[in-house]
Design a protein that fits this description.
The chain crosses the membrane at residues 20-44, 56-76, 171-195. This protein has helices at residues 2-33, 35-48, 55-58, 60-76, 82-105, 111-140, 146-168, 170-206, and strands spanning 213-217, 221-225. By secondary structure, the chain is mainly alpha-helical. The protein has one domain. Strand 1 (213-217) and strand 2 (221-225) form a beta hairpin.
Length: 228
């Protein structure tokens, strides 16, 4: 009987660690994309979905504030170049917010576990924020404006899906975060390669194909002189 109880205890502890890891991974990654949506979703899942989240997330004032900030970001995030400024402002806010959210979620854990989880969430938020900001700069260079809205809506959907997985299926959340991070790294590499190619093409267009040099004389103004 004692062995069975011990095994059951180890299984329960393992499930708890697994659930915590998935929750932190999902919340950390999603916070780097949209911190306010994460806070609002945790509150909604806690109030209406039966999720076990700290009471602070289900408070009405927190839900209202997070919802209002999410609406502001929802609009700003779809306006070219204004979204770049918004991302710049949130370069520190999103990772620090992820640290705070993780700290609250792990309030019942030990001090070291709480600190490690918070730092992990902040690190994931930093990476996902960097991927988001980098891709947005490239998207804003696109001539048509609709691509910005499409990317923004896709990110909103990813945040909702990842937070939902973090709350309901932590293992799937971990897998999803790993896949998204790898895909994001590949995307950033592609964006940088395309940006470097565009820069080279722009420099080539700036050069004069015949090597002409414009010289100025006091007598007759501008005059082209071949070579030089």
């Amino acid at each position: 009987m004692r062995r069975a109880d011990s095994a059951a205890g180890r299984d329960a502890a393992g499930d708890a660690m697994e659930g915590l890891a998935g929750l932190i991974a999902g919340v950390g990654y999603a916070s780097g994309l949209n911190l306010y949506a994460v806070v609002a979703l945790l509150g909604l899942f806690g109030r209406y979905g039966g999720a076990d989240v700290p009471a602070v997330f289900v408070r009405t004032d927190v839900l209202v504030l997070a919802g209002l900030l999410f609406l502001v970001e929802f609009v700003v995030d779809k306006i070219p170049y204004l979204d770049d400024l918004w991302d710049l402002v949130h370069t520190a806010i999103r990772p620090l917010g992820a640290v705070g959210v993780a700290w609250l979620l792990t309030g019942d854990a030990g001090a070291w576990e709480q600190a490690g989880s918070s730092l992990a969430a902040g690190g994931l938020a930093t990476v996902s924020h960097a991927i988001k900001a980098t891709t947005r700069v490239a998207v804003n260079a696109s001539p048509e404006p609709i691509s910005n809205s499409i990317v923004s809506l896709t990110e909103d959907g990813l945040v909702a899906a990842v937070v939902w997985l973090a709350v309901t299926n932590p293992v799937a959340a971990i897998v999803a975060v790993v896949v998204l991070l790898v895909a994001g790294a590949v995307l950033v590499a592609f964006v940088w390669r395309a940006a470097r190619r565009s820069w080279r093409q722009w420099r080539r267009r700036r050069r004069r194909p015949d090597g002409d040099v414009v010289t100025r004389t006091a007598a007759n103004g501008d005059r082209r002189r071949p070579g030089a």
